[in-house]
Automatic annotation (TrEMBL):
<keyword id="KW-0028">Amino-acid biosynthesis</keyword>
<dbReference type="InterPro" id="IPR013785">
    <property type="entry name" value="Aldolase_TIM"/>
</dbReference>
<keyword id="KW-0057">Aromatic amino acid biosynthesis</keyword>
<dbReference type="GO" id="GO:0000162">
    <property type="term" value="P:L-tryptophan biosynthetic process"/>
</dbReference>
<comment type="pathway">
    <text>Amino-acid biosynthesis; L-tryptophan biosynthesis; L-tryptophan from chorismate: step 3/5.</text>
</comment>
<dbReference type="InterPro" id="IPR011060">
    <property type="entry name" value="RibuloseP-bd_barrel"/>
</dbReference>
<protein>
    <recommendedName>
        <fullName>N-(5'-phosphoribosyl)anthranilate isomerase</fullName>
        <ecNumber>5.3.1.24</ecNumber>
    </recommendedName>
</protein>
<feature type="domain" description="N-(5'phosphoribosyl) anthranilate isomerase (PRAI)">
    <location>
        <begin position="5"/>
        <end position="199"/>
    </location>
</feature>
<keyword id="KW-0822">Tryptophan biosynthesis</keyword>
<keyword id="KW-0413">Isomerase</keyword>
<dbReference type="InterPro" id="IPR044643">
    <property type="entry name" value="TrpF_fam"/>
</dbReference>
<dbReference type="InterPro" id="IPR001240">
    <property type="entry name" value="PRAI_dom"/>
</dbReference>
<dbReference type="GO" id="GO:0004640">
    <property type="term" value="F:phosphoribosylanthranilate isomerase activity"/>
</dbReference>
<comment type="similarity">
    <text>Belongs to the TrpF family.</text>
</comment>
<dbReference type="Pfam" id="PF00697">
    <property type="entry name" value="PRAI"/>
</dbReference>
Length: 205
């Protein structure tokens, strides 16, 4: 089965269109003001309005209040939500949109038990744990911690690059992969050659 690809940390129209040209299945937009990849709801929704069909825009939040979330998702019916904080399942469901729950994995975690707490999710994103950092660490976690069978599709994140994407897919066989810093020129600005190489590696590897 072909692996899907989400390019996260999109901040401008040019990178969004470029990622789509190379076959990105989803684009991630970060609505966490402490992130160097933060984007305003207005800019993000203008980008979403220009996306081609069958590309899913994903709105990433970290323990955001409902007003912030609503200010984004009211701009388009296409939004999927990615909850990257300590949100409960009931909070995630309350917005009545498809959602992914991000789980930050470290040694000793019972991944299956963590996933079982979010069975209403469309997918579970597994990322590297780093104290005090909600995501975008650029670090790889121990993929052997991921059980072979989980009740939800797995989106693998954390330190993925064009150099390690084929091995990641070979070892984990995820439903999808998520990359941000691994395909950047600088924080929030994507590298076209890296995006092309990453997507090609994910889909043809």
């Amino acid at each position: 089965m072909t692996c899907r690809v989400k390019i996260c940390g999109i901040t401008n129209h040019e990178d969004a269109q470029m990622a789509c040209r190379y076959g990105a299945d989803a684009l991630g937009f970060v609505f966490y003001e402490k992130s160097p990849r933060y984007i305003t709801p207005e800019t993000a929704n203008s980008i979403v309005a220009s996306l081609p069909p069958f590309v899913t825009p994903v709105a990433l939040f970290v323990d955001a209040n409902s007003d912030v979330i609503d200010s984004v998702i009211k701009g388009s019916s296409r939004w999927m939500i990615q909850f990257h904080g300590t949100e409960s399942e009931s909070e995630c469901v309350s917005y009545q949109r498809p959602y992914m729950k991000a789980l930050r994995i470290k040694k000793g975690d019972d991944v299956a038990a963590l996933v079982s707490g979010f069975l209403s999710a469309t997918a579970i994103l597994l990322d590297a744990y780093k104290a005090g950092v909600p995501g975008g660490t650029g670090e790889v976690f121990d993929w052997s911690l991921i059980p072979g069978e989980l009740p939800k599709p797995v989106v693998l994140a954390g330190g993925l690059t064009p150099e390690n994407i084929k091995e990641a897919i070979k070892q984990v066989a995820p439903y999808a992969v998520d990359v941000s810093g691994g395909v950047e020129l600088s924080k929030g600005i994507k590298s076209e050659p890296k995006v092309q190489e990453f997507i090609s590696g994910a889909k043809c590897g």
